[in-house]
Amino acid sequence: MPNLILGIESSCDETAASVVCSGRGILSSVVASQIGTHRKYGGVVPELASREHLRAIVPAVREALERAGAGYGSLSAVAVTEGPGLVGSLLVGLTFAKAICAARGLPLIGVNHIEGHIHAVLIEASAAGTEIAFPALALVASGGHTHLFELPIEGRYRLMGKTRDDAAGEAYDKVAKLLGFGYPGGPLLDALAPHGDANAIRLPFSKMKGNALDFSFSGLKTAMLRWVESRGMEAEIAVRREMLRAARHPTTGEWLAATPAGTLNAIAAFQRVVIEELLRRLDRAAEESGAKAIIVSGGVACNQGLRRAAAGGRFRCPVYFPTPGLSTDNAAMIAAAAQGKFNRGEFADLTLKAKAGLTLA
Ligand code: KG4
Ligand code: ZN
């Protein structure tokens, strides 16, 4: 029997709702982005995020149901992100999901956001009739996490490595802010990187003591800071900060025109090091685990340079990325990740808590 699960996601700065049929058919996926609110601060401001979620959650859920042609009466369950994330943001989605379940007598399913990101790939593969082979590796790289898992079978996770400081997306966002660009930094630096010469500047790779599959981006970020300081770039950065202060959102072409070749070279070099840091861990983990498939997900999976580098015959097994709309935060991945729990009858009750530091393995 097909079932319909309403997914709700509010862990960071996107308020998202989606209706998914039997864990594989996305009937609707609505994402209300708060980027406009956080852009000028160079990152997500938690208090503002909670307030925006409160404003957006009711219309997002209503629109997801409408687009899916579904009413509350046709749902089988409500799935909601319980963590990890910003506690005030998580609470908004969680409270609304509980209210729907209480009012409509529907089962509630708590979903781990990181498992959701992995399911973004699984749902698309299943819709396309592609079998993902196990053991598989999953790299989840976003603004909040950089985690590498081994999946011996679907639904089992073993943590192989994680970042010891910044997440990959966070490094993009911080470097973008340092250079006077807005938030989020990843998409813009990715668009500018091909215009620079990555060989013009040498930036350091991380040296890990202990687990070689852990990640670190703080050394790279500091090297970028030193590079900026050594060049006296105040005037150039001030121009870009002014562009941000003007109310409208500059285009990539306008940013490009406001960025001299030296800075474009630094952006290209930064992007190359981040991509290599990610892919070298995947190389090594694939070797160690004999992985038959690699899944890359999370906002950083949108990165064009990363996609190109991963597709270049570097890996012996296939590498799967979600389409960009499913790479960044969305609720379809949450509804899809809930399907296994729905099948097993693993429901939460109304005491389900927001868990800011929830882990997957
Ligand atoms: O998955 P996501 O929407 O939210 C979190 O769970 O964090 O990821 C957002 C992050 C931001 O840090 C953003 O800069 C980064 O993903 N990102 C990118 C790209 N697109 C988004 N990073 C590098 N290249 C991109 N094209
Ligand atoms: Zn995420």
Characterization of the model:
- The protein is globular and about 60 Å long.
- It has helices at residues 35-38, 46-68, 87-104, 113-127, 168-178, 185-192, 218-231, 234-245, 252-257, 261-289, 304-311, 324-327, 332-344, and strands at 4-9, 14-21, 25-33, 77-83, 108-112, 136-141, 146-151, 158-162, 293-297, 319-320.
- The longest helix has 29 residues, at 261-289.
- The chain is an alpha/beta fold.
- It folds into two domains: 4-119 and 327-344, ATPase, nucleotide binding domain (Nucleotidyltransferase, domain 5, 2-Layer Sandwich); 134-316, Nucleotidyltransferase, domain 5.
- The protein binds 5'-O-[(R)-(carboxyoxy)(hydroxy)phosphoryl]adenosine and zinc ion.
- 5'-O-[(R)-(carboxyoxy)(hydroxy)phosphoryl]adenosine binds next to helix 5 and helix 6.
Key features?
single chain, 361 residues, alpha/beta, Nucleotidyltransferase, domain 5, 2 domains, 5-stranded mixed sheet, globular, binds 5'-O-[(R)-(carboxyoxy)(hydroxy)phosphoryl]adenosine, binds zinc ion
Gross morphology is: globular
**Could you describe the largest sheet, including whether it forms a barrel?**
5 strands, mixed
- Name the bound molecules: 5'-O-[(R)-(carboxyoxy)(hydroxy)phosphoryl]adenosine, zinc ion
| CATH fold-level label of the largest domain | Nucleotidyltransferase, domain 5
Helix content: 40-55%
The class by helix and strand makeup works out as alpha/beta
Strand arrangement across the biggest beta sheet:
3-2-1-4-5
Number-wise, the strands total 10
Beta-strand proportion:
15-25%
Give the tally of structural domains. Answer: 2
End-to-end gap: 32 Å
